[in-house]
Amino acid sequence: MSDSLSLYIDRRSGLHRLNPLTKLTVAGFCLIAGLSLPGLLSGYVLLIGVLIPLSVWGSVSRAFLGRTWKVVLPFVISVILIQGLLWRGGTPLVAIGPISFKQEGVLFAVTSVGRMLAVVGSFLLLSLSTRPDSLMIGLTQHGFSASVSYIILTTLQIVPRFQAKARQILDAQRARGLETEGNILTRLKALLPLLGPLILSSIIEVEDRAIALEARAFKRSGPKTSLQVLHDSAPQQAARRLMLIAAPLLVILRLVFEVVR
Amino acid sequence: MNRLQREFSTLTLVTIPVAIAINIAVGTIIFNLKVPLYLDSIGTILVGALAGTWAGALTGLLSNLVWGLSRINVAYTPFAAVGAVIGLLAGVFSDLGWLRRWWKVILSGVITGLVAAVISAPIAAYVFGGVTGAGTDVVVAFFRGIGLGILPASFAQGVSSDPLDKAISFVVVWLIVRALPQRFLGRYSGSQNLA
Predict the structure, then answer these.
(1) Closest CA of chain A from B10, distance in Å
(2) What is the ipTM metric for this complex?
(3) Pairwise CB contact (< 8 Å): A154 & B14
(4) Engineered SS bond to B87: which of A96, A211, B60, B68, CB 3.0-4.6 Å?
(5) What's the CATH number where B142 sits?
(6) DSSP states along A173-217
(7) Is A186 on the interface with B (CB under 8 A)?
(8) Closest of B69, B44, B70 to residue B58, by C-alpha
(9) Distance between B96 CA and the closest CA of chain A, angstroms
(10) Could you give the CA distance from residue A133 to residue B75 in angstroms, rounded to a whole number?
C-alpha cells in the first residue's frame, strides 16, 4: 500500500474505526453543505467546526491541514488576483498604483475559497482516514458494482507504477540523446518520444491483465468472501440515513431561498 | 483465447484503469507545464472509441473521481460530469465512423470541446469562483479584464481552450489507434469503427 496513490494514513483512532460508508456519507454531506449553505463564511464554519475537529479525532490533523493548504493555495492566489482586481464596476477597496482591489471581487473570492475548502477538505478527510479497499468492499457489500470497484482500486495501484515507467522511458530516451531541458517548445517536442512508448506498452499489457482477471474467476456471480471484516453499528447506520435525507433537503432549501430572494 | 474474445466486457474492464492512468499521467505533465491546455481525456476518448459510449462515459466519470481521491490534484472531482460526457461523445463519434479520417477526427474533437465547455463553465463558476489554479486561468483573467461576468468569462475561456484541447486529444487517440497492432485492436467491440 505504501506506493499506491491513496492518501491513506494508518492511525489507531476512533475516526479510522468507523465504517467506511459512514465516512463516505459524512464527506458527501459536508460537500453538499459547503456548497448549499448561504452566507460568506459557511465554508469556513464547516471547515473549522466540523472537518478540523474530525481530523483531530482521527489523529491526522497535521496531514489534513498541510495538504488542504497545499492544494488550495494556487487557487486562492488565482481567485483573489483575478476576481479581486478585475471585477467590473466594483467599489475600490485597496489601491495599488493604477489598479485596485474591488470590494465585491474580494468578497466573492473569500466565499469561493470557503466553498473550495469545504469541497477539498471533505474528500481529503475521507481519503486520509479510509483505506481504499475497505471503502470498495463496503460499497460492494451494499450492492455497488464489483467491476467499478475493481477499476478504482486498480487505477490507484497503476498510476504510481505508470509514473515510474515514465521516468524510466525518459531516462532511456535521454541516454539516446533526447533534449529535455530548455524552453516550452523543446519540452513539448520531447513529450512525444516519451508518451508514445509509455501509452502503447501499457495498452498492450491490458491483454495480460484480462487473462489474469479471468483466471481469478472475477466474473463469477454470487457473493464473494472478503479477507477484511468491516464493522458497523446501529448509531452509524442511523447517522448515515439522517445525512442522506438531510443533504437533498439542504439543496432544496437553498434553491427556495434563492428564488424567494 | 476464444473465451476472451467473447467476453469483451472483461477486456474493457481492464482497459479502463490503464486509460485513467494515462489521463492522470499526461494531464499532470501538462498541468505542470502551465500551458493553457488540459490533455487529461486521452484515455477517456480512447476507451470511448474502442469500447463504446457507456465504457467511455464510465472512464471519464471515474477518471475525475479517482483523480480527486488521489494525492495529486484534489480539485478535479466536481468535473466528473464533463469527463463522462467526453467519453460518451467519443463513443458516439466512433459509432458514426467519424474517427477514420483525420479531418473528421479534428471536427469530432472541436464539437466535443464545445460541449465540454458549456457543461464545465457553470461548475467552474460556481464551485471554483471561475478559476481552477491551472494554466487556463490566464485566459479567464483576460476575459474578466475586458469586462465579462464570472459565468461568461468561464464560458469564454472554455470555448477558447476546450475545442483545441479536445481536437488535439482526439488526434492523439487516432494516432494511437493507428499504431496499435490489428491483432490487439480486433478484440474490442469498436474496432470496426476505426479500421
Answers:
(1) 6
(2) 0.78
(3) yes
(4) B60
(5) 1.10.1760.20
(6) HHHTT---SSSHHHHHHHHHHHHHHHHHHHHHHHHHHHHHHHHTT
(7) no
(8) B44
(9) 24
(10) 22
Distance CA A144, CA A111 (A): 35
Q: Find residues 87-116 of chain B whose CB sits inside 8 Å of chain A.
A: none
Residue A122 and residue A24 in contact, taking contact as beta carbons nearer than 8 Å:
no
In the three-class reduction of DSSP (H, G, I as helix; E, B as strand; rest coil), residue A102 is classed as strand
pLDDT 10s digits, A99-147? 777 777 788 888 888 888 888 888 888 888 888 888 888 888 887 777 8
Q: Which residue from B175, B33, B135 is spatially nearest to A192, judged by alpha carbons?
A: B175
Locus of grid cell 505504501: A2
- Is the Cβ–Cβ distance between B11 and B50 less than 8 Å? no
Could you give the number of structural domains in chain B?
Answer: 1
Interchain pair A203, B7: CB under 8 A: no
A95 phi and psi, to 5 degrees?
A: -100, 135
Report the alpha-carbon distance of residue A250 to residue A37 in Å, rounded: 7
Please say if the pLDDT value at position A85 is more than 50: yes
Question: Which of B:46-75 have CB within 8 Å of A?
Answer: 46, 58, 62, 65-66, 68-75
With CB atoms and an 8 Å threshold, state whether A113 touches B129: yes
Q: Shortest CB distance from A152 goes to which of B11, B25, B66?
A: B66
Q: Which residue of A has its CA nearest to B8?
A: A210
CA distance A226 to B134: 41
> Any bridge partners for residue A99, and if so which?
A96
Q: Is A60 helix (H, G, I), strand (E, B) or coil?
A: coil
CA B74 – CA A71 distance, rounded (Å): 7
3-state secondary structure of A39: coil
Does the pTM of the predicted model rise above 0.90? no
Q: Lowest mean pLDDT of A81-95, A98-112, A235-249, B25-39, name the range.
A: A81-95
Mean pLDDT for back-to-back runs of 10 residues, chain B (195 residues): 48 89 83 76 92 90 80 69 92 88 90 91 78 72 77 82 90 87 81 73
Contact B188, A207 (CB under 8 A): no
How far does the CA of residue B81 sit from the closest CA of chain A (Å)?
16
pLDDT at site A70: 83
Chain B CB contacts of A192 under 8 Å are none
| Cβ neighbours of B70 in A, within 8 Å | 5-7, 156, 159
Residue B114 is part of which domain span? 2-194
CA distance A236 to A73: 34
Instruction: Check B127 against A115: CB less than 8 A apart.
Output: yes
